[in-house]
Design goal:
about 325 residues; alpha+beta; 5-stranded antiparallel sheet; 9 helices; about 25% helix; globular
Length: about 325
């Protein structure tokens, strides 16, 4: 095995200068090492994901300089991943999936591919210029190496959020309006092309909710900070005599789940709809053909927390905002 090229003192200088800003995450800290906090980029994206060793937020290359300047984060670990197909086992007999669970297991990336991970440490100076050194490497200062190793190995915030979502899902009630839901035969069919989805009231292209009874697409509620939607979905519910309360968030529909909200005053919360696939089929939507294109409310909530004007390097907990608009 070839001996790695030594890292020079000049190359190490910006990393040594930033050691006072570097923090090692603990078990219960959130580390965003699975997705950019500003976009859908991940370690599998062409440019990989840069995770700050100061506040543990992950960003794509497009946001690296601005994030570094705004949050005073001088050092990042760059995580790049590629998937390589697992070799076929010649002794294993291939069987066709017999259940939905078999089908889902067969399509999970971790069951079909091995992950190849490459890492680098990247320093960003105040002017936005970057310099990189290989990692892992014996010449990297122990404090920097320990923090980087912990960030890479830490449970992703997205995974933790998924666990929280599962817990919340157990607490999410089945809507009393779900069984025997009225669906109008008004000829409306929803295009499978998400670029054609828009709020019928405002023309918005984001944060869209499909009324399961009428096929109306309306934007979500306006958030406390002015972001979100224009209340299109809620306005439609009111305009139709408060008769059709259930709406599903377009872009969150997958074969296994989706965000559904009940506008009914006696519920006014996220709910479960056991026959969601059947109700969506009425509007021409096949849930088996859909993938997530928008953040579910749990992830959107994380995004809203990030936009709050709190010091991103503060050691104190950041208060939770209200649930994102629906």
């Amino acid at each position: 095995m070839a001996t790695p090229t030594p890292i020079t003192d000049e190359q190490l200088a910006p990393f040594r200068a930033a050691m006072q800003t570097i923090r090692t995450p603990g078990t219960y800290d959130k580390v965003y090492n699975d997705e950019c906090v500003f976009s859908f980029d991940t370690p599998f994206s062409p440019g990989g994901l840069y995770v700050s060793l100061s506040n543990w937020q992950g960003v794509s290359a497009s946001y690296l300089t601005s994030h570094s300047i705004k949050t005073s984060s001088p050092v990042y670990v760059l995580i790049k991943k590629v998937r390589v197909a697992k070799p076929d086992d010649p002794e294993k007999v291939k069987e066709e999936p017999k259940t939905m669970n078999d089908l889902l297991q067969a399509t999970l990336p971790e069951n079909r591919y091995d992950e190849v991970v490459s890492l680098e440490l990247v320093a960003v100076d105040p002017s936005g210029s970057t310099s990189a050194i290989p990692f892992p490497h014996d010449d990297v200062p122990m404090m920097v190496a320990s923090a980087a190793e912990a960030v890479v190995a830490h449970q992703a915030a997205g995974d933790a959020e998924a666990v929280n979502t599962l817990v919340e899902d157990e607490e999410r009630p089945v809507s009393k309006y779900a069984e025997g839901l009225v669906q109008l035969d008004n000829g409306v069919k929803i295009s499978p092309d998400s670029s054609k989805w828009e709020c019928a009231e405002s023309g918005m292209k984001e944060n869209l909710w499909l009324n399961l009874s009428t096929g109306y697409i309306g934007s979500g509620r306006k958030n406390w900070d002015g972001s979100g939607g224009t209340n299109g979905g809620l306005n439609h519910y009111t305009a139709t005599g408060n008769l059709y309360p259930l709406a599903v968030k377009l872009g969150t529909i997958t074969p296994t789940d989706a965000d559904v909200y009940s506008y009914a005053p006696d519920e006014d919360q996220m709910v479960k709809v056991p026959k969601l696939g059947e109700y969506l089929k009425h509007w021409g939507i096949n849930i088996m053909d859909l993938q997530k294109t928008d953040k579910v409310c749990g992830y959107a909530r994380v995004g809203l927390i990030i936009t709050l004007p709190w010091p991103l390097t503060s050691p104190y907990p950041i208060p939770s905002p209200p649930l994102p608009s629906h």
